[in-house]
Design goal:
Length: about 425
């Protein structure tokens, strides 16, 4: 197992290109199951969650061929397997998208309960509610989810909570159902829109993605397509915060600036300057960081996946900031690690009170989940001395070439093998 070794105090500057969105790619890949012809996906990020998704398809009998590093051709023509391999499914949360795709394709699906980052209770009850509304019978035994349906029929689906996963799964299952499906209280995230656009490019009939009401009219046939995954909003935001935290000047390229508005607004409030271009944003900071309050919300609010990174920035800002988590129950696990570096953070339930300190100090810390891992990297870059980040398999789930990209901006970061003395180096599930 590897770790990151970071020497802080280096100002980030230069240009960086953002990869394809993890949260979109892991839904688009299962969606190919619904297609009756081969598909080509472009701008696919080279990360472990994508590798696992593609491996699942391959193990099920699909043909998966890389045309180049970021372009993959997938054919599920003739595939008859509706069971997702257990070992692969349990390694990532997004394996549940195979439920909706397989149900839509075959009228049945068998998938183990998904794994992923330990962010608290993330039940799939809303997913199952959607499947049941379309006519599926659901059975969960011994950690396996079994779905069967003689026929899928369009229906009204009201989600009790705004859920990205349930919205996507409802769309996947409804695409080939008979009649009209209306999904109310739907999530609005950019990757929801990307999935709808991908399915529509194959001949689906989906309207309203990006609003809280999505209408899906079922079709009988989906044709092949070539489609490019949207840029990763969270990777872009991570580089933006890193630039602001290190007093940097960074041009983040291959982005959709509108997807970044909530992040840009909070960074400007904290003292950074943001310039938007057609497909890029420039982040600079010439004055001290100042306090601001942040509450994570479903899109278009501040993303929960940016909360740990923002906490690092606020931990070295002047004044007292209040960070409220509005999505997950267990998103502050990283606070103990950040406190070991000298941060002054008090957590009460879903609220963290952050008293800014003059500086952080490098120590050995561990990534408690994917985004917490990115936060530890940023903390290492602003800290005095050497920081070692372990459990970095979490980071590999969602960030492509993270060492190379940060190094290109001037960070002193290396990936090296762990040794026996590294605390927490071998404790976490691969996620």
């Amino acid at each position: 197992m590897d770790k990151f070794v970071i020497h802080g105090g280096h100002r980030l500057s230069g240009e960086i290109e953002v990869s394809g969105a993890k949260n979109a790619a892991v839904a688009l890949i299962p969606a190919v199951l619904l297609c009756d012809e081969p598909c080509i996906l472009e701008n696919v990020p080279e990360i472990s969650d994508v590798s696992i998704s593609l491996r699942i398809l391959y193990e099920m009998g699909a043909q998966v061929d890389y045309i180049n590093r970021t372009t993959v051709r997938i054919s599920t023509v003739g595939l008859k397997n509706f069971c997702v391999p257990y070992e692969s499914a349990r390694r990532m949360r997004a394996s549940y998208y195979f439920l909706g795709a397989l149900l839509g394709k075959f009228g049945k699906a068998r998938v183990s309960m998904p794994g992923g980052c330990p962010l608290g209770d993330r039940p799939i009850d809303q997913h199952l509610k959607a499947f049941s509304a379309l006519g599926a019978k659901c059975d969960i035994q011994h950690g396996m989810v079994d779905l069967t349906a003689e026929k899928l029929t369009g229906n009204q689906i009201y989600l009790d909570v705004v859920s990205v996963g349930a919205t996507m799964n409802a769309m996947l299952a409804a695409v080939r159902a008979e009649g009209l499906t209306v999904i109310e209280n739907a999530a609005k995230e950019p990757h929801i829109v990307d999935l709808a656009n991908f399915l529509n490019s194959m001949g689906a009939d989906i309207m309203g993605a990006g609003t809280d009401v999505i209408k899906v009219r079922g079709v009988q046939y989906l044709h092949g397509t070539t489609y490019s995954v949207i840029p990763d909003q969270i990777e872009a935001g991570t580089f933006m915060i890193a630039a602001a935290a290190t007093h940097g000047d960074v041009l983040v390229k291959n982005v959709i600036p509108k997807h970044l508005e909530s992040i840009s607004a909070k960074l400007e409030e904290a003292g950074a300057e943001i310039i938007e271009y057609d497909d890029a944003v420039r982040i600079t900071r010439f004055k001290p960081l100042t306090r601001c309050n942040v509450k994570t919300m479903p899109h278009p609010g501040f993303p929960t996946d940016m909360q740990p990174q923002m906490a690092v920035l606020l931990s070295v800002a002047e004044g007292t900031s209040i960070l409220t988590e509005g999505v997950w129950d267990n998103r502050f696990q990283y606070v103990g690690e950040l406190s070991r570096m000298g941060a002054n953070i008090q957590v009460d339930g879903k609220v963290a009170v952050i008293e800014g300190v003059p500086a952080l100090t490098g120590v050995t810390v561990k990534a408690t989940d994917l985004r917490a891992g990115a936060a530890m990297i940023i903390a290492g870059m602003v800290a005095r001395g050497e920081t070692r980040v372990t459990n970095i398999q979490y980071v590999d789930r969602g960030y492509e070439d993270v060492v190379e990209k940060f190094s290109a901006l001037g960070a002193d970061i290396r990936r090296v093998p762990c040794d026996d003395g590294d605390d927490g180096a071998a404790t976490a599930n691969a996620g």
